[in-house]
Amino acid sequence: MIDFSNFYQIIAKNKLHHWLYTLPAQMHEWEREHKHGFLPRWEKVLKKLPKVETKHINITDKFEVGIPGELSESDLRKTENLLQKFHPWRKGPFHIHGIHIDTEWRSDWKWERLREFISPLKYRYVLDVGCGSGYHMWRMLGDGAEFVVGIDPSQLFLVQFEAIRHFANNDQRVHLLPLGIQELPKLRAFDTVFSMGVLYHRKSPIDHIEQLKNQLRDGGELVLETLVVDGDEQAVLVPGDRYAQMRNVWFLPSCAALKLWVEKLGFENVRIVDVSDTSIEEQRATPWMRNESLVDFLDPNDHRKTIEGYPAPKRAVLIATKPYAEKLDE
């Protein structure tokens, strides 16, 4: 099984040490539940990846590791074939020794939209909730974060992340745990908490925002990105069975309603910093994600609507600050 002992040893010496009261038992239970199924097969694929160390790692303006010649032609072909076994690749892109993992999402576009608005990440402890395969975590590290933890319950995202980290010299400043936010205790330790593309999947968005708040230190920053609709403070779309063919979509607030929710939970300096329509260039099928994608989920005669007739996907980025305890007590 994928080994989390290094993570335990690292946090035992940093400000996340109190997580050790609950985490090892949780992960032991997770390992017990996943002894069968896809995970053991994917772990065998991980073990077949060629071993190579590189001094050429760029995570500041993209994710790119390795240069030509560090892997032989046969190892390159082997690597590409092995990485394809982790299909579908949703978030990226990644460049591995010349192999371009052209993911469904151009996650780099989202990062460029928000990075100028967030507090500098230098020296920060960062939590990425619903991190997928970890693309944004590498960019957070590239922007100076000291320690980055991602959580996402998907087994596939975990093995994709471990495959990428394998080629990034097994960097121990970034870790992914297969957990949901509801499984975390109130750590109150992270300087910045990101939740991107998660809120609309939660049955209780207010509870989700409060769970995010419980992971932040006083004065820490929340970066929340989610689907939104047009309208005033009371405008919230509750889709029927599906939204853009997704089943588990519960609430799409307006920007004004989203801001109100976050303010109601006591956050300060709450502001919407970006609103962008999702384009079929940003989310699309590729050789690394060969399933249907956004263009298949929109009205073929009017891309301003989903196939169900709802407004097409529009995403907003909200930033807010958790107040200091003395202000909470006032």
TrEMBL record:
<protein>
    <recommendedName>
        <fullName>tRNA U34 carboxymethyltransferase</fullName>
        <ecNumber>2.5.1.-</ecNumber>
    </recommendedName>
</protein>
<feature type="binding site">
    <location>
        <position position="200"/>
    </location>
    <ligand>
        <name>carboxy-S-adenosyl-L-methionine</name>
    </ligand>
</feature>
<dbReference type="InterPro" id="IPR029063">
    <property type="entry name" value="SAM-dependent_MTases_sf"/>
</dbReference>
<feature type="binding site">
    <location>
        <position position="110"/>
    </location>
    <ligand>
        <name>carboxy-S-adenosyl-L-methionine</name>
    </ligand>
</feature>
<dbReference type="InterPro" id="IPR027555">
    <property type="entry name" value="Mo5U34_MeTrfas-like"/>
</dbReference>
<comment type="function">
    <text>Catalyzes carboxymethyl transfer from carboxy-S-adenosyl-L-methionine (Cx-SAM) to 5-hydroxyuridine (ho5U) to form 5-carboxymethoxyuridine (cmo5U) at position 34 in tRNAs.</text>
</comment>
<comment type="subunit">
    <text>Homotetramer.</text>
</comment>
<dbReference type="Pfam" id="PF08003">
    <property type="entry name" value="Methyltransf_9"/>
</dbReference>
<feature type="binding site">
    <location>
        <position position="130"/>
    </location>
    <ligand>
        <name>carboxy-S-adenosyl-L-methionine</name>
    </ligand>
</feature>
<feature type="binding site">
    <location>
        <position position="91"/>
    </location>
    <ligand>
        <name>carboxy-S-adenosyl-L-methionine</name>
    </ligand>
</feature>
<feature type="binding site">
    <location>
        <position position="196"/>
    </location>
    <ligand>
        <name>carboxy-S-adenosyl-L-methionine</name>
    </ligand>
</feature>
<dbReference type="GO" id="GO:0008168">
    <property type="term" value="F:methyltransferase activity"/>
</dbReference>
<keyword id="KW-0819">tRNA processing</keyword>
<keyword id="KW-0808">Transferase</keyword>
<dbReference type="GO" id="GO:0016765">
    <property type="term" value="F:transferase activity, transferring alkyl or aryl (other than methyl) groups"/>
</dbReference>
<dbReference type="InterPro" id="IPR010017">
    <property type="entry name" value="CmoB"/>
</dbReference>
<comment type="similarity">
    <text>Belongs to the class I-like SAM-binding methyltransferase superfamily. CmoB family.</text>
</comment>
<feature type="binding site">
    <location>
        <position position="315"/>
    </location>
    <ligand>
        <name>carboxy-S-adenosyl-L-methionine</name>
    </ligand>
</feature>
<dbReference type="GO" id="GO:0002098">
    <property type="term" value="P:tRNA wobble uridine modification"/>
</dbReference>
<feature type="binding site">
    <location>
        <position position="105"/>
    </location>
    <ligand>
        <name>carboxy-S-adenosyl-L-methionine</name>
    </ligand>
</feature>
<feature type="binding site">
    <location>
        <begin position="152"/>
        <end position="154"/>
    </location>
    <ligand>
        <name>carboxy-S-adenosyl-L-methionine</name>
    </ligand>
</feature>
